[in-house]
Write a structure and sequence with these properties.
By secondary structure, the chain is an alpha/beta fold. Helix content is 18%, strand content 28%. It has 2 domains: 245 residues, Spore Coat Polysaccharide Biosynthesis Protein SpsA, Chain A (Alpha-Beta Complex), CATH 3.90.550; 135 residues, UDP N-Acetylglucosamine Acyltransferase, domain 1 (3 Solenoid). The strands form 7 sheets. The chain has a 7-stranded mixed beta sheet with strand order 5-4-1-6-11-8-12. A 7-stranded parallel beta sheet has the order 14-17-20-23-26-29-32, with no helix packed on it. A 7-stranded parallel beta sheet has the order 15-18-21-24-27-30-33, with no helix packed on it.
């Protein structure tokens, strides 16, 4: 085996708040029919990498059910596998600690290279090109890097390189970055170099690639950057999640319709989309199983969504099996799975300037987030920057008017 891929998929994604309350961030639905982790998995198989370990931790059930034996990604063949790796005796305390706790898995397969990926980014990338550069440079470690806006650089691990792309400095999330060449959290290690680097730090409990492994390897090993210029996005906030979804409705940088690089997923067996006589759909993604009798504009509808007569959906993301009644108006809203919206409801109205009182940093742009398995009453009015938390079982919300900035738990 030449390359073993390890996908770090245990992150909670706390800034996604309600959307990651009952699932890990990589399991969050995206672009209608997909999950966020589908992009890393599809990139692997499209790159010819069919041996994959997925390191799960936080609320893994949804992710485990989605991946199964890996059939949608052609990972159930005799010469391929996908293995779900969960913590045994203790929680993963850092990115490199997660790999350390599965180091026997790495040693067992004795690949030449180990590709380490984050399971929560949206992009399409041919990893084989990065691995080829790793071979040609004789690197011990290659880090995928992307130029970001200088204003955003402090959110990333920032690296500095010479003219041959050899990395001479790496700082994790610097307060005053001197470069805007950011690590994408995608690493190719020569396997023995990875094992040596991890085993060299037995006393660090929260072992992390950005804080510990990479800075130390730069001092003594051959560490190079692989520059990447195409679309790549971390959908780690409500605003970035909504923006990335809605970008796909127009002229997106991310082409989901490229037959040479498909994004695979576990699909549901649902009938075709049904559009009523008076319905209109503009600049939107509508998934299988939807029934549209109202108006949908600049929105993403996941499988099984029902939009009643006279209702309008605008600038919104509606997840699986949501039922929207008649004569509703929904704007700038994310609605999680299996929620029912009563007739004559309005969600997204009034003053955008009042931030959410509990989480002002998470929700201040006028966006509303409605959780899963809720039953909202007829005639409900929801203003702006509102959070309504999910329920484990179908739950009726009694409120008839939810004011701007409120949170309903």
């Amino acid at each position: 085996m030449e390359t073993l891929a390890l996908i770090l998929a245990g992150g909670r994604g706390s800034r996604l708040d309600i959307l990651s309350e009952k699932r890990s961030k990589p399991a969050v639905p995206f672009a209608g029919k997909f999950r966020i982790i589908d992009f890393a998995l599809s990139n692997c198989t499209n790159s010819g990498i069919f041996q994959i370990g997925i390191l799960t931790q936080y609320l893994p059930l949804s992710l485990n059910e989605h991946i199964g034996v890996g059939k949608p990604w052609d990972l159930d063949r005799r010469d391929s596998f996908v293995t779900l790796l969960q913590p045994n005796n203790s929680w993963y305390n850092g990115t490199a600690d997660a790999v350390r706790k599965n180091l026997e898995f790495v040693k067992r397969y004795a690949s030449k290279y180990v590709l380490i990926l984050s399971g929560d980014h949206i992009y399409k990338m041919d990893y084989s090109k990065m691995i080829e550069q790793h071979k040609q440079t004789g690197a011990d470690l290659t880090i995928a890097a992307k130029i970001v806006d200088m204003s955003e650089a402090s959110r990333f691990g920032i690296l500095e390189t010479d003219s041959n792309l050899r990395i001479n400095k790496f700082v994790e999330k610097p307060k005053e970055p001197k470069s805007n060449k950011a690590s994408m959290g995608i690493y190719v290690f020569s396997t023995q170099a990875l094992i040596d680097a991890i085993e060299a730090h037995p006393d660090i409990d929260d072992l992390d690639f950005g804080m510990h492994i990479i800075p130390d390897m730069i001092k003594t090993k051959n560490v190079y950057a692989y520059e990447y210029y195409d679309y790549w996005k971390d959908v780690g906030t409500y605003d970035s999640y909504l923006e990335a979804n809605l970008e796909l409705c127009k002229n997106p940088q991310l082409d989901l319709y490229d037959p040479s690089w498909k994004i695979y997923t576990k699909s549901e067996d649902l009938p075709p989309v049904k559009v009523g006589t008076d319905a209109t759909i503009k600049t939107s993604l509508v998934s299988n199983g939807c029934i549209i009798d109202g108006d949908v504009e600049n929105s993403v509808l996941s499988p099984g969504v029902v939009v009643g007569e006279g209702s309008s959906i605008k600038n919104s993301v509606i997840l699986n099996d949501v039922i929207i009644g008649k004569n509703c108006k929904i704007e700038d809203t994310i609605i999680d799975k299996n929620t029912v919206i009563g007739d004559n409801s309005t969600i997204g109205t009034g003053d955008k300037s009042i931030a959410n009182k509990d989480k002002p940093k998470l929700l201040s742009s006028g966006l509303n987030v409605i959780g899963k398995k809720l039953i909202l009453p007829e005639g409900l009015v929801v203003e702006r920057n509102v959070r309504v938390f999910s329920s484990p079982n179908p739950k009726e919300i009694k409120d008839k008017h939810i004011h701007a900035g409120e949170t309903i738990k």
